Amino acid sequence: MARLTSRNAHDDLLLWTQFLEGSVTAWGTLLDAHYHILFNYGLRFGIDRERSHDCVHDLFLDLWDGRQRLNATLDNVSFYLLRAFRNKLIREKQHERTHQELNEITTEHLQETPAEDWLISEETIRYNGLRLKGLLTTLPARQQEAIYLKFYANLSNKQVAELMHLQQQSVANLLHTALQRLRSLWGISSGLALWAIALRWWLS
């Protein structure tokens, strides 16, 4: 699934305003537009498919019931929904007493890797994507969550930090550690370009 573009974000703000004014159509359109990103986030968070589906719909029912109390001046609807959904997932896991402890975060600094030019066939991209999908599942849940929010939800490090209740540097550390681990498992020294290409298969 494609990440949200600036045009989509602008449309979201218009729909949000209409939803707050009581438009069922706008409410349903927002649900349809954000269902998959929220549903997949639930799966990455350790929630099974049925519960993730239910949590998405429960969230939007809660939003509808409480729309008169919601903020009318959002900067980013997608970020707001992800944060609200994450809070719901945490409550869901706490209710079942399955909330996992956070992984210890390293203090290494994120080093920028120069962009690389890749001339890769579609079959090679698919192969790399499937291979990376398997490697990503070996990462700690906290690192998987950071990668999901950064590369799929298209959030900035600052937004990821706010959503995960971390310092911004800690998010950079998580991403750095995860990418270093992936490169080590892959067995080659490669930059971010390969992961950006292959991640779409894991996140689809």
From TrEMBL:
One GO process term, biological-process aspect: DNA-templated transcription initiation
The keyword Ligase belongs to this UniProt entry's keyword annotation: no
Domain spans labelled RNA polymerase sigma-70 region: 31-94
Keyword Membrane part of the UniProt annotation: yes
Cleavable signal peptide: none
InterPro entries: RNA_pol_sigma-70-like, RNA_pol_sigma-70_dom, RNA_pol_sigma70_r2, RNA_pol_sigma70_r4_t2, RNA_pol_sigma_r2, RNA_pol_sigma_r3/r4-like, WH-like_DNA-bd_sf
Keywords: Membrane, Sigma factor, Transcription, Transcription regulation, Transmembrane, Transmembrane helix
Transmembrane segments: 185-203
Any single Pfam family the record assigns to this protein: Sigma70_r4_2
Molecular function in Gene Ontology: DNA binding; sigma factor activity
Domain RNA polymerase sigma factor 70 region 4 type: 132-182
Similarity comment: Belongs to the sigma-70 factor family. ECF subfamily.
Listed PANTHER family: RNA POLYMERASE ECF-TYPE SIGMA FACTO, RNA POLYMERASE SIGMA-70 FACTOR ECF SUBFAMILY
Protein name in the entry: RNA polymerase subunit sigma-24
Species per Swiss-Prot/TrEMBL record: Spirosoma montaniterrae
